[in-house]
C-alpha cells in the first residue's frame, strides 16, 4: 500500500535525523506522538515548531480550519506525549497556554513563522499554543541496577509530580484570594497547566498500580507467601487510591476545572493516602527487590 504524504514525511524524518525535503525543506520540524483520546492508540504527526528557551512551541492551527486538529484533542485527554526532535526522542508534558501568556507566545511564534497569523485570521477559534518542555540536561538520573532502584525511580517521579500539582494549586488559591471583592471579576477556575500535570500524574499512577496488581505482586507473592497480608493491604490501598483518582479524573474532565475547591480537597486526600502507601510499600517490598537485576535477565 502506498504511503500517505504525512507518513512519507515521518519516514523521511526518521531516516535523516529530522531533515526532510519537499515543502518542509529548511523548516523546523518535530514529530509529536499522542495517544488517541478515544482509541488509546499512538498517533504521530509532523509539526512545525518555534524554540523558546528550554521550550518548544507548537500551534494547533489545523491550517485555519474551524475545528481543532485531532492531535490537540488527544493531548487534552492524554497530556504525556512523545517528541522526536532531530535524532533525539523524549517524553514531554503538553500544556496549552491561556490568556495573556498564550497571546505573548503566539506573537513569539508569528515573529518567526508569519503564516500562523494568516491561519488565525481564517478562523473564529483562538489557535491554541502548546508548550512542550525540553528535558533538563543537568537532571542526570541515578544509575539503575536493580528492580528496587527502578521502583524507587517510579516512586520518586510520582512524589515529584504530586508536589508540583500541590504547589501550583496552592499558588492558584493564593491568587484567588484577591478576587471576590466588589467590582472585581469572579475568581477563575483552575488552569490548564494544573489540569494537564494532574491528569498525567493520575494516568501514570493508574498504569503503575495496574502493573503491580497484574504482574509484580502475584509473582512476588508466589516466592513470599508469608507476606500475603502485606500484598493484600497494598492491593486494598490501590483500590482506595483508585477511587480518589476517579474523583479527580471527573473534575479534570472540564478543561477549566469548574470546581477548584472540591479539586483541592480531593488532591489533599490523594496526597495523604498515596504518601502513606508509598512509604509502606518501600518498607516491605524494596528489600525483596534489591537482588533482582534491572533490566531483567533474558529468559
TrEMBL record:
It catalyses: oxidized coenzyme F420-(gamma-L-Glu)(n) + a quinol + H(+) = reduced coenzyme F420-(gamma-L-Glu)(n) + a quinone. Residues 149-289 form the Hemerythrin-like domain. Signal peptide: none annotated. Pfam families: F420H2_quin_red, Hemerythrin. InterPro entries: F420H2_quin_Rdtase, Hemerythrin-like, Split_barrel_FMN-bd. NCBIfam families: hi_GC_TIGR00026 (TIGR00026). Belongs to the F420H(2)-dependent quinone reductase family. PANTHER family: F420H(2)-DEPENDENT QUINONE REDUCTASE RV1261C. This is Nitroreductase/quinone reductase family protein. The lineage of its organism: Bacteria, Bacillati, Actinomycetota, Actinomycetes, Kitasatosporales.
Amino acid at each position: 500500500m502506498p504511503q500517505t504524504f504525512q507518513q512519507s514525511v515521518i519516514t523521511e524524518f526518521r531516516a535523516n535525523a529530522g531533515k526532510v525535503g519537499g515543502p518542509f525543506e529548511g523548516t523546523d520540524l518535530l514529530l509529536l506522538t499522542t495517544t488517541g483520546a478515544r482509541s488509546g492508540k499512538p498517533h504521530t504527526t509532523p509539526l512545525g515548531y518555534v524554540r523558546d528557551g528550554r521550550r518548544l512551541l507548537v500551534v494547533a492551527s489545523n491550517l485555519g480550519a474551524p475545528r481543532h486538529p485531532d492531535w490537540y484533542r488527544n493531548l487534552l485527554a492524554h497530556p504525556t506525549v512523545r517528541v522526536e526532535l532531530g535524532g533525539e526522542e523524549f517524553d514531554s508534558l503538553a500544556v496549552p497556554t491561556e490568556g495573556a501568556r498564550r497571546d505573548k507566545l503566539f506573537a513569539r511564534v508569528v515573529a518567526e513563522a508569519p503564516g500562523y497569523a494568516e491561519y488565525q485570521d481564517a478562523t473564529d477559534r483562538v489557535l491554541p499554543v502548546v508548550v512542550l518542555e525540553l528535558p533538563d540536561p543537568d537532571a542526570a538520573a541515578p544509575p539503575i541496577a536493580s528492580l528496587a532502584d527502578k521502583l524507587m525511580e517510579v516512586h520518586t517521579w510520582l512524589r515529584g509530580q504530586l508536589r508540583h500539582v500541590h504547589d501550583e494549586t496552592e499558588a492558584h488559591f493564593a491568587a484567588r484570594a484577591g478576587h471576590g471583592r466588589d467590582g472585581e471579576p469572579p475568581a477563575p477556575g483552575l488552569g490548564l497547566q494544573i489540569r494537564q500535570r494532574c491528569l498525567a500524574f493520575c494516568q501514570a499512577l493508574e498504569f503503575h498500580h495496574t502493573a503491580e496488581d497484574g504482574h509484580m505482586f502475584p509473582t512476588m507473592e508466589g516466592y513470599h507467601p508469608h507476606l500475603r497480608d502485606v500484598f493484600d493491604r497494598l492491593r486494598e490501598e490501590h483500590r482506595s487510591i483508585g477511587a480518589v483518582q476517579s474523583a479527580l479524573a471527573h473534575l479534570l474532565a472540564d478543561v477549566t476545572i469548574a470546581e477548584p475547591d472540591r479539586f483541592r480537597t480531593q488532591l489533599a486526600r490523594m496526597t495523604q493516602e498515596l504518601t502513606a502507601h508509598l512509604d509502606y510499600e518501600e518498607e516491605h517490598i524494596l528489600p525483596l527487590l534489591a537482588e533482582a537485576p534491572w533490566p531483567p535477565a533474558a529468559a
